[in-house]
């Protein structure tokens, strides 16, 4: 039953969260954050089987159930099979965190059509297909939380990251539009657009480049994955139901 605040009478420990790209970095931190309150956690991965299992082992020390699933998010059939597998285990996500994504660094002139299509397929199409697959259940129970992990570059753009910036800008627009569409059904849709986070996504930078990056950020440091996961968790709470259609950027004051 839905309350006046848009929340349902469902304890956090009874809820299920699906985290795409949950085998490492921000995704792994998000999975562990939800597991720490006893939620049922589904960790999606594509190829990183051992890494996903390690995240699952860390999550298993808490009370909720933990499951790993694999799917190529560019492929609708694989996403539907993933949904079927979850349903066979009695799991229907109340919360979907679209975190899976790949980066690309290089001049626009050097981007091939294949590279453009691939990054778009993972970052944008994957978000679309996963949301389309799991949104109907949220609408049917008149409650749900969708959090899309975007990027600061989707807000400001980045030189030599035109392709990546374009995908995250698309995710931001997707977020705003779907929030309006899903709001009457009790589903909120928000995006978290982190600044520079200390993960493997920055591994293409050398020590000098990382030092220069830190100097650009007023906080003087990179974010930790746990700082991003805490914001994602907050947006997923029942009491956050009036926050909708927002692109929130934890970036240390880098872009305001």
From TrEMBL:
<dbReference type="InterPro" id="IPR036291">
    <property type="entry name" value="NAD(P)-bd_dom_sf"/>
</dbReference>
<dbReference type="Pfam" id="PF00106">
    <property type="entry name" value="adh_short"/>
</dbReference>
<keyword id="KW-0560">Oxidoreductase</keyword>
<dbReference type="GO" id="GO:0004316">
    <property type="term" value="F:3-oxoacyl-[acyl-carrier-protein] reductase (NADPH) activity"/>
</dbReference>
<dbReference type="InterPro" id="IPR050259">
    <property type="entry name" value="SDR"/>
</dbReference>
<dbReference type="InterPro" id="IPR020904">
    <property type="entry name" value="Sc_DH/Rdtase_CS"/>
</dbReference>
<dbReference type="InterPro" id="IPR002347">
    <property type="entry name" value="SDR_fam"/>
</dbReference>
<comment type="similarity">
    <text>Belongs to the short-chain dehydrogenases/reductases (SDR) family.</text>
</comment>
<protein>
    <submittedName>
        <fullName>3-oxoacyl-ACP reductase FabG</fullName>
        <ecNumber>1.1.1.100</ecNumber>
    </submittedName>
</protein>
């Amino acid at each position: 039953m839905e309350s006046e605040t848009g929340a349902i009478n469902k304890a956090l420990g009874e809820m299920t969260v699906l985290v795409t790209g949950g085998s490492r970095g921000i995704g792994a931190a998000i999975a562990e954050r939800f597991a720490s309150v006893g939620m049922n956690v589904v960790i999606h991965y594509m190829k990183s089987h051992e890494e996903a299992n390690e995240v699952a082992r860390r999550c298993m020390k808490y009370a909720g159930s933990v499951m790993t699933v694999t799917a190529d998010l560019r492929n609708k059939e694989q996403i539907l099979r993933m949904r079927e597998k979850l349903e066979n285990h009695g799991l229907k996500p109340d919360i979907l965190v679209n975190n899976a994504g790949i980066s690309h660094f290089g001049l626009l002139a050097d981007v091939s059509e294949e590279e453009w299509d691939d990054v778009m397929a993972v970052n944008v199409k994957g978000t679309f297909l996963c949301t389309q697959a799991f949104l109907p259940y949220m609408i049917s129970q008149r409650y749900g939380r969708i959090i899309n992990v975007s990027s600061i570059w989707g807000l400001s753009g980045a030189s030599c990251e035109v392709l990546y910036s374009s995908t995250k800008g698309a995710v931001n627009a997707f977020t705003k539009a779907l929030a309006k569409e899903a709001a009457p059904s009790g589903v909120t849709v928000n995006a978290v657009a982190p600044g520079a986070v200390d993960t493997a996504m920055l591994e293409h930078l050398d020590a000098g480049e990382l030092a220069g990056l830190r100097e650009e950020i007023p906080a003087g440091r990179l974010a930790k994955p746990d700082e991003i996961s805490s914001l994602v968790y907050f947006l997923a709470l029942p009491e956050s139901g009036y926050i909708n259609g927002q692109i929130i950027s934890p970036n240390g004051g880098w872009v305001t």
